Predict the structure.
Amino acid sequence: MADTHTTTHAGLAHHFDDMEQQREAGTLGMWAFLVTEVMFFGGLFLAYILYRARAPVEFAVASNSLNVTMGFINTLVLICSSLTMALAVYFSQTGKRNLIVVFLLLTMGLGLTFLVIKGFEYHEKYVEHHIPVRFATYEFNWEGHASGHEAASIPVDDGKVEMFFWLYFAMTGVHALHMIIGLGILATLVLMARRGRFTPDYHSPVELSGLYWHFVDIVWIFLFPLLYLVGAHLH
Amino acid sequence: MRNRRSQRRLSNRVFMEIAEKVIPPRTHYLNATYGVKSWLLTTDHKRIALLYLASVTFFFFLGGLFAVGIRLELLTPKGDFVQAETYNRMFTMHGVVMIFFFLIPAIPAVLGNFLVPLMIGAKDLAFPRINLLSWYIYTLGAAFTVVAIILGGVDTGWTFYTPYSSTYSNGNVVLTGVGAFITGFSSILTGLNFIVTIHTMRAPGLTWFRLPLFIWSHYATSLIMILGTPVIAVTLLLLALERIVHIGIFDPALGGDPVLFQHLFWFYSHPAVYIMVLPAMGVISELVANMTRKNIFGYKFVAFASLAIAVFGFLVWGHHLFVSTQSVYAGMMFSILSYAVAVPSAVKVFNWTATLYKGSISYNTPMLYAFGFIGFFIIGGMTGLFLAALGVDVHVHDTYFVVAHFHYIMVGGTIMGYLGGMHYWWPKITGRMYPEAWARFAALVIFVGFNLTFFPQFLLGYMGMPRRYYAYPEEFQVLNVMSSAGASILGIGYLIPMIYFIWSMRYGPHASANPWGAFGLEWRTSSPPPTLNFEKTPVVTWEAYEFTPRDEMVVVSVRDLLDETLRPRPVGSE
């Protein structure tokens, strides 16, 4: 049968009986992986809850010094990237090869935008000496912080402020690392899509990478209020 | 008798010589391809299991080497073989190597990897390349740890408690931590692979309650692997960052909380105990059912007990913190929950014992290990209840009582299960039988050596000897000498199987497809199995361990059928 040469069979790995079984295995595998990711971030969130409960004022004041505008723009960028990713998945299901590539590239562009904005934010923190490290050439310094509004006048324990920044960099850093890995995955998908690897019968890689991308977005949806907005009432 | 046996052996050899000329050699997973590359790039779960077997065996003996150092030092009350600093590094490296690189991967990554697809009638695990990746990740983590050992090791204890590990220790904390961190991902990938495989790749007709109990226990283990391991990963990441950039998430001097580390650490590391012992329980269920030729008494209870242990296991970590700053009310809850874990554990022990009743028991090597496991697990488990009691724990916390308790579980439980399983499935893995008499002798040596090593430690701990000290008062010497003597017997006991297993790979008598007359899909394919496990996908129409006189469906090659009818059965199966 000419059937054996269609792309349906090309995507089927030797140890699966049929495409359905392969798709189920892949989907379950990705969801199980996302569960491990939840547990991974869970450790950081636990530390956040513990230290915020101990130092609510310091966390609010320190959070107040973050750039909410940039954080908000980044939130929008990521939500848009989720939309473009979902569209890429949709077009992989309908078999529009060019549109898959277009929307994957758009998603990558938005992801890159996020990272660039994040880079500017990190740079700002670096200039302000808010990166919580102690080296001979560079030290965390909250004393010199003068944001000009009343939040700066609230007396705080510098050590606890530092703890906020420590969590800020750990959480956003691990999140950014996931974004970078995501960009790598999307780049691979673009190459595969250009070669016409995805068909309505075989598009699991796009779908599963989409799940991962959405997960990373959702983590940010939690990080944004916890890190940027807990001090908003001080404005 | 002896004459007749050697005659049979002779005619067997003649038969094999003729057979080898007449029948072309059967292709199986071991001889399908040759060369180093065909092993290092394999995606066959059976070959990956053997890669893991080589690695964990290496680490078992490496960890054992540190144990030798510890027991040598403790022969005498004073520090003469080594001093405190070296001793601290030895017991730390013993713990790190044994736990992260032997006990956790031993049964799942070797026996589980080999058997999960075979037992459920699949061609491979769901993600064969991820399976290979997990071995490379393990190897990378192992490399970091070996480098750390060569550079002088680490002295924090395998628990890496802060702030000692993050601030004061001058050992290679980061390297060792990174090693454990990386290896954790191999464990996650193995667990993920098992869960997906068990869910999606079962043979037609193989419903959940027809699964071997080995599969149930590996499913429960995998749940712990994917839920717990990421937490230790992020904890070790924070520890490493804290040590490198000196920012205190766990450092009280900087507003951090060292007890948070203990909570995060034990949130993984207590369930990790069940990662180590649940697979062994799965092995024991197989051994007890097949060596008594009966279904396990209360099959469903044993199956659900595995899941219950996995779930409860996540709720008891606080019993490691009874004497830290944890609130006494939290302590009471953790104490009660720890007692709750004893229930499903006891269900298993009672059901294995009840299975023996009116069973047709074979007292061969695998079964000897199963008996050993059950006895040791009872002692280890019951002393666990002592430790879960708040008042008693204050007295025996951080003493040799604890050391003896968890060695009864990990060495008496996990390693007995592992060795029992290795003997039981050795003919399937290699296609050769091990020498039964030597194997029984080794099991006996291990039994004696183990008890002599660890039972005195209960007494030492109860009398107040703290763990992790290189020197001790003179009145403890007699019991310590007993323990060291036992350790040397135990060491010899472990070397004997090492030797005869290697011997049997070349000289052992050929094994038939099912030398034990055992139940289960893995015995319905040839030994060793072909690369894709079954010549055709089996259809399951029977219940688990349904021992009946009916003819069993056998998917074997002609050569195996000839073997079976013409050759003497191995000694152990009579």
Notes: The first helix of chain A runs from residue 7 to 10. The interface with chain B takes residues 13-17, 21, 24-25, 28-29, 32-33, 35-37, 39-44, 46-47, 50-51, 55, 132-134, 157, 159-160, 162-163, 166-167, 170, 174 of chain A (CB under 8 Å). Chain A has one domain: 20-141+151-234. Confidence is low (pLDDT under 50) at residues 1-8 of chain A.
